[in-house]
């Protein structure tokens, strides 16, 4: 089975290391440069570029559209910060069934995993599990398989909140979400990069959880409408 990997990137000094690691397994790679200050330059990959930063979700959707044009049924997403390990992709593929979203549940036992990340994951899991009635273990993981059919969902959020909304809407469409345990690399704090804005992005996440909760329980979304 041919495997397509979509890597959204914004100002990552590690992007070429990530690309080389993925290519070593023979996968098709689509890199979506989401308006980096210095344009990404990479060989042996399909490189797409947003002229300005539009958000991680928009970059994933850009990659999804290209994967669809190339005839893929699904694609893998990986972050560009070296956290996800290419050798673990096969675990996601082995767990994939038609129209499933597969989430790589990261091993957080590493000493470098900050307490804020552990709390954020637990907080996100609580709300997504409530909104979807599915017991998922790592709803903040960007290491996933998406079916091409996510392009048919009416997704309104385009930044980090995309990764929450896509799970809910996929679930409301009566399609499955599964997770699989994977290893990851969490660098020490002086090597870590993140474009998560603790104020703006937490506000966005709070807003989407509030909206999904209200629609699920008061407007019966997922029960009588998608």
Polypeptide structure, described:
The protein has 226 residues and is of the alpha/beta class. It has helices at residues 15-23, 56-69, 89-95, 115-132, 162-172, 200-217, and strands at 4-9, 28-34, 46-50, 74-77, 101-106, 144-147, 177-182. The chain has a seven-stranded mixed beta sheet with strand order 3-2-1-4-6-5-7, with helices on both faces. Strand 1, helix 1 (15-23) and strand 2 form a beta-alpha-beta unit. Helix 4 packs parallel to helix 6 (200-217). The longest helix has 18 residues, at 115-132. The radius of gyration is 17 Å and the shape is globular. The model has no long low-confidence stretch (mean pLDDT 93).
Describe, in short, the structure shown.
It contains six helices and seven strands, in the order E-H-E-E-H-E-H-E-H-E-H-E-H. By secondary structure, it is of the alpha/beta class. It has a single domain, classed as Spore Coat Polysaccharide Biosynthesis Protein SpsA, Chain A (Alpha-Beta Complex), CATH 3.90.550.10.
What is the CA-CA span between the terminal residues?
31 Å
Low-confidence runs (pLDDT<50, min 5 residues)? none
- What is the structural class? alpha/beta
Number of helices: 6
Number of E strands: 7
The largest pleated sheet is described as: 7 strands, mixed
The SSE order reads EHEEHEHEHEHEH
Strand content: 15-25%
Strand order of the largest sheet: 3-2-1-4-6-5-7
CATH superfamily: Spore Coat Polysaccharide Biosynthesis Protein SpsA, Chain A
Shape: globular
Share of residues in helices? 25-40%
Query: Any idea what the radius of gyration is?
Result: 17 Å
